[in-house]
Design brief:
Layout lengths: L4 H24 L6 H79 L2 E10 L8 E4 L12 E3 L4 E8 L4 E5 L6 E6 L5 E7 L2 E7 L11 E4 L13 E8 L8 E7 L8 E7 L46
Antiparallel strand pairs: 1-2, 1-12, 2-5, 3-4, 3-12, 4-5, 6-7, 6-9, 7-8, 8-11, 9-10, 10-11
């Protein structure tokens, strides 16, 4: 169409009519006078729209697939995060169960020895104040902790308190070379002094050089005056080696401690000693000995009364 005055006037007129129809359609709502025309147009152009839709659908499906793929990826990422969080929670639950087990064993030891204890958690481990084997616990003077108190856990003797702050305390571990504790042997009551040797067994010097002792014998703390720094009866360890007696005034033993000093978590500080010495009551029950089977061999004679070339043997365990 040529750009003339008449064509411009026609364009303006068509635009005005279009606006007028839109206004009438909006005001008419469902009873719009142009609704019939709209339906007729839909009937006329519907098949064409369907054809175009069919042609466009594969592209639309592909776009939707990509969009859904992104959504699935996002959901997968969320699920992976939730799974990781669940595993972390389960791990935390396992740790809590482990701590509950430690606490239960420690309370059992405290009950058997009649020790009044204050539970604490190990929050640091390492050198402190010149000591090579120490731990820091989250209990201090505000919790009733004082210097030279015995520290134990569900396995036995951990150490003694050396330094106390308001909220924390330092514990010298029993395997430190500067650590010494009086011991008493189960059964024969032989006395000695145990000293730490780092990651090696404790070294114990028995006061009786002729004491009868063997591998597997067990030791507990002898106790100190006024229960400081050590209360009596706390399990120390098991004899793993005995030096031959050389006729000296003392006898040397090597004792594997009950406590694993490299994996401490929950400990208890003895804030009140027992009314009486628990002796060997706190020691764990001894393992039952495994019986050694014996074999009885019987020989079955042959029919003529002579022993067979290949004797039949029946092994019976008694």
């Amino acid at each position: 169409m040529r750009d003339t005055k008449e064509s411009r006037l026609l364009l303006v007129l068509l635009i005005a009519i279009a606006f007028a129809l839109i206004t009438v359609d909006i005001r008419g709502g469902r009873n719009s006078p142009v609704d019939g025309a709209r339906q007729a147009a839909a009937a006329a152009f519907g098949p064409i729209e369907n054809g175009l839709s069919s042609a466009v659908d594969p592209v639309g499906n592909a776009v939707s697939a990509v969009r859904d793929s992104g959504s699935r990826h996002d959901r997968l990422a969320v699920m992976e995060k939730e799974n990781a969080a669940l595993k972390a929670k389960l791990g935390s639950d396992d740790r809590n169960r482990s701590r509950l087990g430690q606490l239960d064993r420690m309370l059992k030891v405290a009950g058997q020895g009649q020790y009044g204890i204050k539970g604490a958690q190990v929050i640091a481990i390492g050198a402190a104040q010149g000591f090579s084997w120490t731990i820091t616990i989250d209990a201090g003077a505000d919790d009733g902790i004082r210097r030279d108190m015995t520290v134990l856990n569900g396995d036995g003797l951990v150490g003694r308190v050396t330094t106390v702050g308001p909220d924390t305390a330092t514990v010298l571990l029993a395997n430190d070379p500067d650590f010494t504790v009086g011991t008493r042997m189960e059964g024969n009551d032989e006395l000695g002094f145990a000293s730490g040797q780092g990651d090696r067994p404790l070294r114990v010097e028995l006061l009786n050089g002729k004491a009868e002792v063997k591998k597997g014998d067990r030791l507990v703390t002898f106790g100190s005056q006024a229960d400081k720094p050590f209360v009596p009866g706390v399990p120390v360890g098991v004899v793993s080696r005995v030096d031959p007696s050389g006729g000296g005034l003392t006898r040397t033993l090597y004792v594997t401690p009950y406590v694993g000093f490299s994996k401490l978590d929950i400990v208890g500080v003895v804030v009140a000693g027992p009314k009486k010495d628990p002796r060997d009551e706190v020691l764990p029950a001894k393992p039952k000995p495994v019986p050694t089977p014996t074999v009885t061999v019987t020989v079955t004679p042959s029919a003529d009364g002579s022993a067979p070339d290949d004797a039949d043997t029946d092994g019976q365990q008694q």
